[in-house]
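One-letter codes give the sequence; the fold follows as tokens. Both lines appear below.
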Amino acid sequence: MSATPANKFLTKAYIDGIYIPSGLLIFGCFIVKKDWLPFAVALAAVLGGYKIWSSQETPVLKPTVFQDFELKEKTIISHNVAIYRFSLPKPTSILGLPIGQHISISAVLPQPDGSSKEIVRSYTPVSGDHQPGYFDLLIKSYPTGNISKHMASLTVGQTIKVRGPKGAMVYTPNMVRHFGMIAGGTGITPMLQIIRAVIRGRAAGDKTEVDLIFVNVNPEDILLKDDLDGLAAQDKGFRVHYVLNNPPEKWDGGVGFVTPEMITKWLPKPAEDVKLLLCGPPPMISAMKKASEGLGFKKAKPVSKLEDQVFAF
């Protein structure tokens, strides 16, 4: 994790890379030839300034230009899910993605008629700017998914084309009192990004409450369950509620589709300081918009805006 602004200049990198070399240079000149001391101080200041400048975290995303990023690591989660880690230009580089926004991935792919076509899809990284040097994407490969199948075929060293940021959601601490979230499948990625940001911000005064309903077909489909359970155990302000279409025996979570009763039981009631976030397959989003309106939430718009009470990614 990156150091906070208050203590970053006291990290080992600054001590070993700036303070000690500068001190040795100045002390050496003081011992050997005092006449050189002003030049040594000036040189130490220049080198130290360059070191500080070159170590700053640099955003790399460009909203209108696709850039190449190299696949550094691929972690298989299941037969059709993997986490892909891509390198940024420098160890101190950051993607520059506001919490709640996403990126576009482009690839020119062969079509059934023998032609080629540029395909663009949006994804939300599961990493953040507090982790410089790389970004992670959690992607499920679908039989009919152009980009997801392309991603599954990548090997370490190959590149993808990315631009961004994009999206209407930008999370800021305490923007609401309580988030209710409903996610289906890989729709968990923008939710996880926000959940982690909320919990990271506790020390700085973020008091946002979060309740998440996470919907999947089978138990093995629940992505990042250990991470979610760990966050819930770590933070009393975050709670996760699982719903399965095909639950195992002795399952104590929800079963089937998300119902108005589940929303009433697990998520916050409609209020001006409450926001409902939705992400998942289009049929689920459509059903949840209708259900939320029936429960007293403001009617969801076809295209969500940041100020909307019900926001669909």
